[in-house]
Amino acid sequence: QVQLVESGGGLVQPGGSLRLSCTVSGSIFSMSAMGWFRQAPGKQRELVASITSGGGFTNYRDSVKGRFTISRDNVKNTVYLQMNSLKPEDTAVYYCNQGAGNYWGQGTQVTVSS
Description:
Number of strands: 11
Oligomer: single chain
Largest sheet: 7 strands, mixed
């Protein structure tokens, strides 16, 4: 059974940083592209960042370019999202997604507020 477990969310002031982690079990993690999505209240879930299976290519939505960094450790079966210079509009539940099989984690809340 494939499981994705996110961690690292929380409350942070504008301009602050958080690092999200997503650890995957029960699948061949190293062979799958991974993505981070987010969903704010009343809005559709949107792709934030993605990374290829080997980590060689990444992609970001325009609003987070230069502030967020996605990375992965294929030994630890973990994908990360480093979020810097956070803004109130980054507030959302962040979800990890494994492309192969379209598996999702349970989500972790990120709140950016003073």
